[in-house]
């Protein structure tokens, strides 16, 4: 009976250790999630900064080009305007492509974050299920142990009565 009780205690300890490991993993996943969110926020700030910087650079170039055009003859001004329009169009396309790439990257990071949240929820659900199973098994083993103790007691009583009856005979 003591061996059974010891076995139950050992099993409970190993399951408790498993539960603690699961909780630790959940904490680590939460930390990772926070780091990903911080990284995403930093990227958004960097994107805004780059956008403002690009706009200021573009405005500076347009001003410089405009001044050069004023200094040139009308024929050269038309050629210069066409070059500026082409350059501006290429810059807009490049800027648009960069924005799309950044949107895709943010979308990928968001998806990764979502997947990690799902993983955390799944682990928590499994941990909760394991905890419930562990409690149920503990209850069952405790009841079986109590029943075993009762049977042992009854056996000793019957054995004692049997011995007593044999002596009387």
Automatic annotation (TrEMBL):
Coiled-coil ranges from the UniProt annotation: 99-126
UniProt GO BP: centriole replication; de novo centriole assembly involved in multi-ciliated epithelial cell differentiation
Subcellular location: Cytoplasm
Keyword Coiled coil: yes
Keywords: Coiled coil, Cytoplasm
Keyword Coiled coil: yes
PANTHER family named in the record: DEUTEROSOME ASSEMBLY PROTEIN 1, SARCOMA ANTIGEN NY-SAR-24/CYTOSKELETAL PROTEIN SOJO
Listed name of the protein: DEUP1 protein
Organism: Ceuthmochares aereus
